[in-house]
Amino acid sequence: MRIGVLGAGQLGRMLALAGHPLGFELVCLDPARDAPAGQVAEHLAAPYDDELALARLAACDVVTYEFESVPVATARELARTTPVHPSPDALAIAQDRWTEKSCFRELGIPTAPFARVDSEDELRAAVDKLGLPAVLKTRRFGYDGKGQSVLCRDADIASAWRELGRAPLILEGFVRFQRELSLLSVRSTTGETAFYPLVENEHSHGILRLSRAPARGLTPALQATAEDYGRRLLDRLGYAGVLALELFEEGGTLLANEMAPRVHNSGHFSIEGAVTSQFENHLRAITGLPLGSTALRASAAMLNFVGAPPEPALVLAVPDAHLHLYGKEPRPGRKLGHATVLAPDETTRETRIASLEKTLAARDESR
Ligand code: AMP
């Protein structure tokens, strides 16, 4: 079976690696010549509207994407001839924070209060309504905390507008969350559905730094609430594939922040940490195969390597640590790889996370 993929970043690379044992051949379209998936899968280095490249993808059995900023028009064009999963409609909703949050609201999934902002007057009206502090975000193409500004006092309004006002915006109430969680859901074209245990995420400068799976102290009630929200989304979107839902936990309640209609960085732990990885389950889901178990094999944690690679020998000296490097040129702020540690219990996991973090400190000292 041939699977076309829009995007050829590290997510495409890990999809390709998961697809090999199942006999899947992946063909990835990405304009970047040195795209990470190109080292392990067929790579079409062309723009997303290149007719020849799109014809090659359309000849695949199914098309998916690993990057949510791919043009919806491309996904829709491909869907005329070839199954595209997740659907272009799901992609379109997730690309715009306003349609995304409106979808959550329509499904009864709690969010921070939010308002659409298309002018400075609307921004002032939104601040009057939601109060301060608040977060102003571009509706489209924001990622890893880019395209956002926190407004603390009235004087911040004009400067935030100057910084971001050229694009359509959304204002959100500032959530004083205790922690950030994510739910990885998966639904097959057959309708079969599964959920991974909630993951607890820590960010640094807007970029995911560390994930713990399961989240510390995870209760069945919190998991059930998250799964209820995940299921509403999967059903509403007629979804096939992995869907990541990012959540804030605030005073025991869950507020949805955003969703990613694809495999997700917070699910990388599942390669070693779960019976079936998010990558394999995504491929199973979009090809209508039975889903694999989402149960954890151990307490897992994943640490991202951003900007500079670690010393492999130091990482691999940590018990039950697994290293993944994406074959990317180091650049500040760039995700170059990750390591997952497994542990028999949460206490041992914390010790192993601390050992992994020491490898980062050693790396930074030698730079
Ligand atoms: P996002 O691009 O929406 O995922 O936001 C990036 C990060 O900014 C999140 O992981 C949060 O740490 C923080 N953040 C986003 N929205 C809010 C909000 N409404 N209140 C407080 N923090 C937020």
Task: Give a concise summary.
This protein has twelve helices and 17 strands. A hairpin with a 2-residue loop joins strand 11 and strand 12.
Description:
With 367 residues, the protein is of the alpha+beta class. The chain contains twelve helices and 17 strands. Strands 9, 10, 11, 12, 13, 14, 15, 16 and 17 form a nine-stranded antiparallel beta sheet that branches. The relative contact order is 0.12. The structure holds adenosine monophosphate. The site of adenosine monophosphate has 13 residues, from strand 14.
**Morphology:** globular
Mean pLDDT: 96
Q: Topology as H/E string? A: EHEEHEHHHEHEEHEEEEEHEEHHEHEEH
Strand content: 25-35%
CA(first)-CA(last) distance: 45 Å
Helical amount among residues, as a percent range? 25-40%
- Largest β sheet strand count, sense and barrel closure: 9 strands, antiparallel
The DSSP helix count reads: 12
Flag low-confidence runs.
none
What's the total count of β strands?
17
Helix- and strand-based class?
alpha+beta
Small-molecule components bound: adenosine monophosphate
Alpha carbon gyration radius: 20 Å
What is the secondary structure topology, with strand pairs?
Layout: E1 2-6, H1 10-19, E2 25-29, E3 42-44, H2 51-58, E4 62-65, H3 72-79, H4 88-95, H5 97-106, E5 114-117, H6 120-130, E6 134-138, E7 148-151, H7 155-164, E8 169-173, E9 179-187, E10 193-195, E11 199-204, E12 207-213, H8 220-237, E13 241-250, E14 253-260, H9 270-273, H10 278-286, E15 299-306, H11 312-316, E16 321-325, E17 335-343, H12 346-365
Parallel strand pairs: 1-2, 1-4, 2-3
Antiparallel strand pairs: 5-8, 6-7, 6-8, 9-10, 9-11, 9-13, 11-12, 12-15, 13-14, 15-17, 16-17
Bound molecules: adenosine monophosphate (AMP).
